[in-house]
Amino acid sequence: MMIVALNNKCNLTKKEFREYQIKLQEVKTTSKLILCPSFLYLDQFNLTNIKLGAQNVSTTDCGAYTGEVSAKQLKEENVDYCIVGHSERREYQQEKNEEINEKIKRLFSYQITPILCVGEKRSEREEGLEKQVVLKELTMATKDLTEEEKGKVIIAYEPIWSIGTGLIPTAEQIIEIIHTIKEMFPQNKVLYGGSANEENIDTLKEISEIDGYLLGGLSLKPEKLQIFLEKLEK
Q1: What is the pLDDT of residues 105-143, one digit of tens each?
Q2: Contact yes or no for 36/11 (Cβ under 8 A)
Q3: What is the pTM of this model?
Q4: Residues recognised as catalytic
Q5: Maximum CA pair distance of the chain?
Q6: Strands 51-54 and 212-215: what pairing?
Q7: Helix axis angle, 97-109 relative to 130-141, nearest 10°?
């Protein structure tokens, strides 16, 4: 079964989110859908055809940590999945691999499945460092996890230079990175993210190594998401 995770990022007002959920309830798919809305709307989630995810988690447990949201709090909201290590947090919040590792450990302590994002910058791709970058991120993010925990991590390959640009790597480039990931994590689901949409899914779905998708902009457009899913599952 394909996994399709929907990352709303910092979008939608409360009214818009309610209307959005009504449209999502009508989406038909055989894939597993995971919705990752803003923290503000976790308690507004009421869909029966989609699993609930979060976009981030604190490295700490509950306590005097202003502005943080802990794994324990996410669990109370019935969150089953959580994105960690997204490139936007790595860039804008200077999130380090060591922090991502701690977040993953916190999530597992509350039986929440991490969706770990890895990927290279354009400069790293041009220098031929993409494999080295991805392997380093994977190694450091999963440090000290048990083998069972490592096997449960969902890995999302998102080439940073592709996110929001409309550009996607060639099939050969995607396959090469997924093979690299699978050599280290042979049992794990590997998603692709980075400008995947209803127009290029016909090309992407030919890559059998892809186990699903992490969608950003497309996640906000239920009608186009439905087209994406229909083409994916055809």
Answers
A1: 999 999 999 999 999 999 999 999 999 999 999 999 999
A2: no
A3: 0.97
A4: 86, 158
A5: 50
A6: unpaired
A7: 40
